[in-house]
Design goal:
heterodimer, A: 336 residues, mainly alpha, 13 helices, 0% strand, B: alpha+beta, Glutaredoxin, 3 domains, 6 strands
């Protein structure tokens, strides 16, 4: 076997393993952030007992689900019931593969990274639908159907708004998209319509409030997760927060320059310093948008199902088409 | 005109302000609310699962109430009506001035001695230390104190409660179990023996006779302060049943007629010659003599 192929394979295995390991602390951090920020915004103190300043609360939650009993309903389709959490979690974890964390710090630098990302992320809807169907529970089934309807509907404006960025930068490769932003400024200034569409659609795509109809507690118990317990529920839960992280990361990469600093200096940092500098900016921006998502969850009430579909098909889809054609015309007309 | 979507921004601004606003959470076990000093929480009668009062009318709550706000009455296990009145009941505790304001005759406090009684706390401490503050020695400690004062002064009980770290209600409850006087005995103390031998030999008749003669029930003092009637089971250990102890002298075997004679001998006699000890008792008797004179 060719040595370079072997090296590439080894690098790939190492990168995927590291990313998979990264998902767990990421989920812990995002969950902790959510617990604390929501509490503070509701004038509560939030977790402050486990660990220094309550920092280990989400970690304890994570280990708690490991210790819990894992139940499967009698009538459930055991094979798919077991498979569903895995599908949802892997969809989230695998889509991390193409995120550029820092210059050269990306697991797989595809030339069709954007396509891969949205294709893989779209798999999670299958997991949710399978979970809802196999649970043999009407709430689970309703939740699964809702997730199918919601995520398929919002994937269209989501992807169309990304196409605007792709036309603008002329690439499906995330690294090249970032490099384009280094030369021309952040895409958000060129995509003033595309960014809000992407933001709203992304929020709906990962079932965040105010679009959390999939597991609307007050309506359908916990949606597809109703019958899940123990670590299987833990996988869903983790996947949700990993998806939040990934969506923020992609939003930052597409519209806010990814790992680039907001100012042009220092222009070129290389080696370890450059990687660290990129990592800091990448995580700062990503966690800012995670904070915004949490902030929205605290503030906004859940919208109705008919409103949800109405926004997707009557508002976001036409707007994203306008954005797409507007961008295309502008690129052709002004030779951007 | 409201801009569409401005409500969302208003809400987001509100939550962002709240992020930095002071928090309302109170860390309960560590942080306690500042309550008034004499606040005792919500008073309530507790019911058992069958809907019956769990209150057994032990009066301990009434005894410890710092503002003496509890009056209570109920039925004991024998069906007798009982009421809170160990030192006094609320009506009797009222300020004489309140009676005067109401146009009623001022009534003296029945046991005003409680208020300015002076006890030797060093002695009480010595007794407690002698028993190494063991709670099971409470009755022995009571006995030692009653031997000195002739009764259990409230101050001494409070001292016991403080020193031995036993709740006041428990100390008071133990003292009220029997065998101890909570008030200074007034005048001659007539103790009717209730041991098995004495009752078999006619002790019940002696008790009824003495109650009839004095017009009070066991445990009470006559209104003029000349006699205190009480019962005990260790007057004569059955040797001279039925026996009665008057002050320090033990008489027996007695008939009701003979007891009547002994009581008449002391009625109207010099109260000051009685042998029960204690400064308060003496002061009280002097006061009673002064009233009579």
């Amino acid at each position: 076997m060719d040595l370079s192929l072997l090296l590439g394979l080894g690098r790939f295995v190492l990168a995927t393993t590291l990313l998979l390991l990264l998902t767990v602390p990421t989920a812990f951090v995002v969950i902790q952030l959510e617990l604390k920020v929501i509490a503070l915004m509701q004038l509560r103190l939030g977790p402050n007992r486990v660990g220094p300043r309550g920092l280990f609360q989400s970690t304890i939650h994570g280990f708690k689900v490991l210790a819990k009993e894992d139940t499967v309903p009698d009538q459930a389709d055991r094979a798919t019931f077991t498979l569903a959490p895995w599908m949802v979690y892997m969809a989230a974890a695998m889509s991390m593969l193409v995120i550029p964390f820092a210059p050269g710090f990306v697991a797989a630098d595809f030339n069709i990274g954007v396509v891969y990302f949205f294709a893989i992320l779209g798999l999670s809807v299958v997991g949710l639908l399978v979970a809802g169907w196999s649970s043999y529970n009407k709430y689970s089934l309703l939740g699964g159907l809702r997730s199918a309807a919601q995520m398929v509907s919002y994937e269209i404006p989501l992807t169309l708004s990304v196409v605007g960025v792709v036309i603008l930068t002329g690439s499906l490769n995330f690294t090249q998209i970032i490099n384009h932003q280094l030369a021309h400024g952040w895409n958000v200034w060129w995509q003033l319509l595309g960014f809000p569409i992407f933001f709203i659609a992304a929020t709906a795509e990962i079932n965040r409030a105010p679009f959390d109809l999939v597991e609307a507690d007050s309506e359908i118990v916990a949606g597809p997760f109703t019958e899940y317990s123990g670590m299987r529920f833990g996988f869903f839960f983790f996947a949700e927060y990993v998806a939040l992280f990934i969506m923020s990361a992609i939003l930052v990469t597409l519209f806010f320059g990814g790992y680039l600093a907001p100012w042009p200096f220092p222009a070129q940092l290389s080696g370890f310093i450059g990687t660290l500098y990129g990592l800091i900016w990448f995580f700062a921006k990503t966690y800012f948008f995670i904070f915004v998502a949490i902030w929205m969850r605290t503030t906004l009430p859940r919208i109705r199902v008919d409103q949800l579909m109405g926004v997707a098909w009557k508002v976001l889809l036409p707007l994203s088409l306008i954005n797409l054609f507007g961008t295309a015309i502008a690129v052709v007309a002004f030779k951007l | 005109m409201a801009i569409p979507g401005s409500g969302i921004l208003t809400g987001m601004a509100t939550t962002m302000r709240n992020l930095f606003a002071p928090k309302v959470t109170r860390q309960y076990p560590e942080e306690r609310p500042q309550m008034p000093e004499r606040w005792r929480g919500r008073l309530d009668l507790i019911y058992d699962p069958f809907g019956e009062h769990k209150c057994e009318v032990c009066f301990q709550c009434a005894q410890v109430c710092p503002v003496e706000a509890i009056d209570m009455s109920g039925f004991d296990s024998q069906g007798n009506r009982i009421r809170y009145g160990m030192p006094e009941i609320y009506d009797e505790r009222k300020d004489p001035n309140a009676y005067r304001r109401a146009g009623l005759e001022a009534r003296p406090m029945r046991n005003a001695a409680r208020w300015d009684e002076v006890i030797d706390t060093a002695f009480v401490d010595q007794v407690i230390d002698g028993f190494h503050s063991r709670p099971e020695a409470l009755v022995a400690i009571f006995s030692a104190i009653q031997a000195r004062y002739g009764y259990l002064p409230e101050r001494a009980l409070r001292r016991i409660s403080d020193r031995m770290v036993i709740h006041w209600a428990q100390v008071f409850g133990a003292a009220g179990l029997g065998g101890f006087r909570l008030l200074p005995a007034e005048g001659h103390v007539i103790t009717v023996c209730t041991c098995a031998a004495c009752r078999f030999a006619g002790g019940e008749a002696l008790l009824r006779e003495s109650e009839r003669l004095l017009g009070v029930r066991a445990g009470e003092s006559t209104p003029d302060g000349a006699f205190t009637l009480e019962t005990s089971s260790d007057v004569a250990a059955g040797a001279i049943a039925p026996a009665v102890r008057i002050d320090t002298l033990v008489y027996g075997p007695l008939t009701p007629e003979h007891l009547g004679h002994l009581v008449e001998q002391r009625r109207g006699g010099a109260a000051g010659t009685s042998a029960n000890g204690g400064g308060n008792g003496r002061r009280r008797r002097t006061a009673a003599a002064a009233r009579k004179g």
